[in-house]
Amino acid sequence: MKILKYPLWILYRIWFYILVTLPILLLFPLLVVSILKEEWYPYFFKLARLWAKIILVGMGFRWLIERDQAPESTQSYMFIANHTSMADIMLMLVSAQNPFVFVGKAELAKLPLFGFFYKRTCILVDRSSEKSRKAVFLRAQKRLKQGLSICIFPEGGVPDEKIILDEFKDGAFRLAINHQIPIVPMTFADNKKRFSLCFFSGGPGRMRVKVHPFLSTEGMTSKDAKTLNEQARSTILGQLLAYHNH
Predict the structure, then answer these.
(1) Are 44 and 121 in contact (CB under 8 A)?
(2) What's the CA gap between 43 and 128, in Å, rounded?
(3) Cα–Cα distance measured from residue 6 to residue 2, given in angstroms and rounded to the nearest whole number
(4) Where are the alpha helices (DSSP H) in 27-83?
(5) How sure is the predictor about 165, in pLDDT bands with cuts at 50, 70 and 90?
(6) Which residue has the higher pLDDT, 47 or 197?
(7) Any idea what the Cα angle at residue 226 is, between residues 129 and 127, rounded to 5°?
(8) How far apart are CA 150 and CA 45, in angstroms?
(9) Percent of the chain scored above 70 by pLDDT?
(10) For range 148-173, the mean pLDDT
(11) How confident is the model at residue 2 (pLDDT cuts 50, 70, 90)?
(12) What is the rounded CA–CA span in Å between residue 150 and residue 99?
């Protein structure tokens, strides 16, 4: 019986890439116009959220968001979450309504079509380059001054399947402290089960999101980054274990 699942998994993966590409083609003129000026980014963000919803619905995913605290529309934030799936990008776009800019891997800019918009709207980082990592702070500062928020997956990548939650890098926390913006920790409970990087896996179902109480950075200095890191990771890990044991 499991042999029959393999062709279905292959088709499911192919369908995902069709869903990623098709809305971009259909929305292409609007997307191009929305990135012509940086101040038009909020319009691009609305189109990106529509793109994300089309993909999640098309894949048979049903998102359920529980919020302990809701962001204010006039405030900038640092959104963070555990990273387990390619679908994390879409789920983050659906979960956070405040226009934000992703800080992500430079390699994704090489992807056809998606990469065209990715490199023009996101803050790219080459984690092997100290110069690239420092440049992130300057680009993030510019975006925050424009009233936008920032999103970083602090694990720095998708960890091995057996790891529940990898160690967090300090960058997101130093950045939030540097700009005195609150951190919004979020737990994505089901993305690894729904659509992990393991090719022969996944399927439709619920995607639970827990938006935790925000972590204030007011009055903190860069010396507090590690403590803030551990607090955020402990919050997300505790929620993952609670979901796992439920």
Answers:
(1) yes
(2) 33
(3) 7
(4) 28-34, 41-58
(5) very high
(6) 47
(7) 15
(8) 12
(9) 98
(10) 93
(11) low
(12) 9
β-sheet bridge partners, residue 103: 123
Per-residue H/E/C for 18-29? HHHHHHHHHCHH
Contacts of residue 58, defined as CB under 8 A and 6 or more positions apart, other chains included, come to 15, 19
For residue 185, give the DSSP letter.
Answer: E
Tokens at 76, concatenated? 């900038």
Question: In which order are the strands placed within the sheet that holds 123-125?
Answer: 61-67, 205-211, 183-188, 78-81, 149-152, 100-105, 123-125
Mean pLDDT of the region 232-237: 98
5's enclosing H/E stretch is helix 2-26
CA triple 65-239-57, angle to 5 deg: 30
pLDDT of residue 6: 85
> What whole-number distance in Å separates Cα of residue 83 and Cα of residue 157?
7
* Closest listed residue to residue 225, CA positions, set 164, 187, 168, 157: 168
Question: Do 86 and 79 meet the contact criterion of CB atoms below 8 Å apart?
Answer: no
Question: What are the beta bridge partners of residue 101?
Answer: 150
Q: Give the position of tokens 């259909």.
A: 26
Those residues with Cβ within 8 angstroms of residue 79's Cβ, 6 or more apart along the chain or in another chain:
92, 96, 100, 149, 150, 151, 152, 184, 186
